[in-house]
Amino acid sequence: MKALLQTEGIGMTSRRTRERMIDRLVEQGISSHKILDAMRNVPRHLFMDDALASRAYEDTALPIGYGQTISQPYIVAKMTELLLDHRHMKNVLEIGTGCGYQTAVLAQLVDHVYSVERIEPLYKQAKNRLWDLQVRNVSYLHSDGGWGWPEKAPYDGILVAAAPPEIPQALLDQMAVGGIMLIPIGKERGVQELQRVIRTRTGYEIESLEPVSFVPFLSGKK
Ligand code: SAH
User: Fold this and answer.
1) Domain count, the chain
2) What is the dihedral of CA 9, 70, 55, 194, to 10 degrees?
3) Pocket of ligand 1, candidates 218, 219, 221: which has the most ligand atoms within 8 Å of its Cβ, to mutate?
4) 198 DSSP β-pair partners
5) Are 68 and 98 in contact (CB under 8 A)?
6) What CATH number corresponds to the domain at position 129?
């Protein structure tokens, strides 16, 4: 069965604030109803500390510990929209599980998500959180995403949530022909660009899309 999130017991206030987030995403140009519905279903405030939960639906990145951030709602929606591009995807590789919010959104929309995180406490927390939310179509790996997850390749989609200076070769290798990768590229926060890579039968098409700001892609496990 597809991922099913329990949203019972969540007050009307957060339901309303979540609805305002959806309205804002529409104003910002997100048009896919499937993606808007997926984001409506995921209780974003359960992905962060109680102290920050009241700000969960603001259009901003917020700290999740270990120097990392939960991605801003617009960027989650935009990357998901660009990745899926109205297609059905069997498997998607996500690099940078973080708190698991983007993972939960993706899990509503594709058959299976393979998610890799290098910081062990974040990996464990996200895995437990998504299990509690009854998201079952996700596999987790505590590893350096620079290696991808070769055993499960090739992937219809790859979504990278941290910015390396250049596209890791292993990720290119693990794309299916016809597959899409969305990846922020750049050395410093604020001077990165979101790139879309499409694997063709003969090579790769790479396109720069828009300026973005992600945490750095770091190597090694922690
Ligand atoms: N979509 C996530 C984004 C978290 S921030 C969310 O909304 O919570 C990016 C994450 O990428 C961080 O958790 C960071 O630890 C992780 N990361 C950075 N470099 C990585 C690498 N080489 N392999 C795996 N994860 C990495």
Assistant:
1) 1
2) -120
3) 218
4) 180, 205
5) yes
6) 3.40.50.150
